[in-house]
Amino acid sequence: MVKEIRIYIEGGGDSKNQKSSLRKGFSHFFKELVNQAKTKNIKLNMIMCGKRNDALRDFKNALKSHPDAFNILLIDAEAPVKKSSVWEHLKLRDNWDKPAGVDDDNCHLMVQTMEAWFIADIETLKKFYGQGFKENAIPKTADVETIPKDNLERILKTASGKTIGVTH
């Protein structure tokens, strides 16, 4: 039986404060998983890794340094997923080879970019940015993954550009 789950997450920047903030966000996001792990006496660690390649490096190191844990890599898809296997996608997209002894259960893809998640929740964006937020600048689609990755940051800047009280 697994006694420890270690999730290596892309993102969080390079500073301790940035990583701490993202860790808190993921702890809230995974609250139900965290609670289930606690009830089964399973230790659950979320490790913010910063850059994409750093996340892969940390995950590979964990396979050696924590072989008894269930190690998971959680990483942005960065592009539309056209392959049935996570590792096939990462081989095609990043030329990453699947580490020995792992399968698709050890790697999960997030959206192409975090900005897509932000755009998916317009109500929260309106609350966060407040007065001056231009909701109509955000495309009306239920499938935010269809919005080209290169457009997402521009869309958010346009929508939030004239807001009051928020530092961009």
Would you kindly provide a brief summary of this structure?
By secondary structure, this protein is α/β, with parallel strands linked by helices. It has helices at residues 16-29, 31-39, 52-65, 86-94, 114-120, 122-129, 149-160; strands spanning 4-9, 43-48, 70-76, 107-110. A four-stranded parallel beta sheet has the order 2-1-3-4, sandwiched between helices.
Can you walk through the features of this model?
The chain contains 7 helices and 4 strands. By secondary structure, the protein is α/β, with parallel strands linked by helices. A 4-stranded parallel sheet has the order 2-1-3-4, sandwiched between helices. The chain has helices at residues 16-29, 31-39, 52-65, 86-94, 114-120, 122-129, 149-160, and strands at 4-9, 43-48, 70-76, 107-110. The protein starts with a strand and ends in an 8-residue tail after the last helix. 43% of the residues lie in helices and 14% in strands. It is globular, with a radius of gyration of 18 Å.
Topology:
Blueprint: E1 4-9, H1 16-29, H2 31-39, E2 43-48, H3 52-65, E3 70-76, H4 86-94, E4 107-110, H5 114-120, H6 122-129, H7 149-160
Parallel strand pairs: 1-2, 1-3, 3-4
Please name the defining characteristics of this protein.
4 strands, four-stranded parallel beta sheet, 168 residues, 14% strand
